[in-house]
Amino acid sequence: MAGDEFAELLGQLKERSGLSYGVLGKRLHTSASTLHRYVNGDAVPTDYAPVERFARVCKATPEELVELHRRWVLADDRRRQKAGGAAAADEVAAEAAGNETAAGEGTAGQAGSDSGRRTLAGVPWARRRTAVLAGAAVAAVLVSAALVVNLAPGEGDDDQGGKESVGAASRSAGSADASPGSSKSPDAKGKSASPSASRSGTPTAPASASRSSGAGAAQGGGSQNGASAPNVAVNPYKWEGPCSQHYLVNRDPERMPPPPSEQDARGWATALGGVAAGQQMLALTVQGTGKATVVLEELHVRVVEKSAPLAWNDFAMGVGCGGGVDTTAFKVDLDAGRPALSPKAGQRDFPYKVSESDPEVFYVFADARAHNVSWYLELEWSSGDQHGTVRLDDRGQPFRTSGNVGRPTYEYPLGSSEWGRNEYEPNIPG
C-alpha cells in the first residue's frame, strides 16, 4: 500500500537519526503525537513541507528525499480517495432519504404498488445509482487533488494553439492563498508587468475552455488507448534551503513583516507583491493519469517579457543556513537570448518516463541578474501515437524572476524582531 510505504520510510529515517519523538517535535515545532501518527501510518500530512523538514532533520540523502516525495504523492492521493469516497457515501445516503420521503408523499394512494421503492437498499437500480454517484464523487476529488491540467487562453508571444495550463487549474484549487497582491505585481514604474499579446495570428483557446472540467486533450493529443496528458503539480515557491531564497519587495524594511517559512512563502510573497530575486526554484511533480506510460520529451522555457531589474529592496529569508538539491535538477539562465534548460550536477537530460504509479519530481533553478523576466515552461509529452504540450505556470500567471544585483539587502537574524541592513551587500559584483 502507498501509505504503508510512505510511513515505512519515515520510520526508517526516524530510527536512523536516533532522535526521540519529543526532540523531533521541538525541532520541527510539531507535537510528538502528530509525528507518531505519521510514522505509524495513522495519518498522512496534507502538505509536503513538514515531511521535507522531518527528512532533513533526520539527515536524509538527496535520493531519499526524492523517494520520500514520490511515496508522499501516492499516499496523499490515496488519502484523498478515501475522503472523497466517504463524502460521496454521505451525499448518496442523504439523497436516498429525500427520494424516499418524496415517494411517500407523492404516492399516498398507491402504497401497495410503491412500497418496494421505499427500501432503496433492496432495489437493484438504487444500488447501481449509488455506485455511480460515489464513483463520480471520487473522480471529482481526484481531479482537484491532482491539479488537473486545464486549457488556458493564450498569454504572451509563445502561447498559442490551446495548450493546457497547469496554473489555470491550480489557481481555483488554491484560492485560500488569494490576496490583494496575488495579481500581477507592478514594476518599478508602477505599471503592470502583464504579458504581451500574441502577435503570431495563431488562434488561441477560448477563455471558457480554461474553466472546463480539466479533461480536455492537449494540443495535438488525445486520450485513446488510455493515454492523456500527465498531471503536473507546480510549486514556484520552493526553496533549496531554509534560508536560501530572496524576494524583491517595493517596501521599506520598517513596513515589512517577518520572513515566512517555506510553506507560507506563497501567501507572504503575493500579499506583498514580492518577486523572486536572483534565483527562483521550481518543483514539478509529474504523474501519469492512466495505465499507459507517458514519455516526457522536452521541457522548454518561454519568455513573455524582459525589462530592467526591479529597483526594490532585497529581503533574504534567513541567515547562515543552506540546502542542496541535486537530484533531477535543471538550471536556466533567463538573461540569455534564448533561455534553455540544462541538467544540473551531472543529471541526465530529457526524455523521462512517468506513469500513474511512478511519478517524477523535477527541480528547476532559474537565474536572472540583468533583467526582470516573466516566463513559463512548456512540457512536451507522448504516449504511443498520442502527443501534446502542457503549459506550466503560476496558477495561470507567468513566473517572475528579477535580478537583484546592487539592491539594498535586508536580513532578519534569528531571535531578532526587525529587519537589518546587510552592509556587506553580497549582490554587488566583484
Task: Explain the overall architecture.
Strands 1, 2, 4, 5, 7, 8, 11, 13, 14, 15, 16 and 17 form a twelve-stranded mixed beta sheet that branches. A five-stranded mixed beta sheet has the order 3-6-12-9-10. The protein is an alpha+beta fold and 430 residues long. Helix 1 runs antiparallel to helix 5 (62-106) and helix 5 runs antiparallel to helix 7 (124-145). The N and C termini lie far apart (54 Å). It has two domains: 1-102 and 138-145; 150-421, no CATH class. Helices cover 30% and strands 21% of the residues. The longest helix has 45 residues, at 62-106. It contains nine helices and 17 strands.
What gap, in angstroms, lies between the N and C termini?
54 Å
Q: What pattern of helices and strands is seen along the backbone? A: HHHHHHHEEHEEHEEEEEEEEEEEEE
Assess the beta-strand content as a share of residues. 15-25%
**Overall SS class:** alpha+beta
Low-confidence stretches: 99-162, 168-225, 426-430
> How many helices in DSSP terms?
9
Number of domains: 2
Helical amount among residues, as a percent range? 25-40%
Shape: globular
Quick recap:
The chain is an alpha+beta fold and 430 residues long. It is built from 9 helices and 17 strands.
SSE layout:
Layout (H helix, E strand, L loop, with lengths): L1 H16 L3 H8 L3 H9 L8 H9 L4 H45 L4 H4 L9 H22 L4 E2 L12 E2 H8 L57 E8 L7 E4 L15 H8 L2 E3 L1 E9 L6 E14 L5 E4 L12 E5 L8 E2 L8 E3 L5 E8 L4 E12 L2 E7 L6 E4 L6 E3 L8 E2 L9
Parallel strand pairs: 2-14, 5-15, 8-16, 9-12
Antiparallel strand pairs: 1-2, 3-6, 4-5, 4-8, 6-12, 7-11, 7-13, 9-10, 13-14, 13-15, 16-17
Helix pairs in contact: 1-5, 2-3, 4-5, 5-7
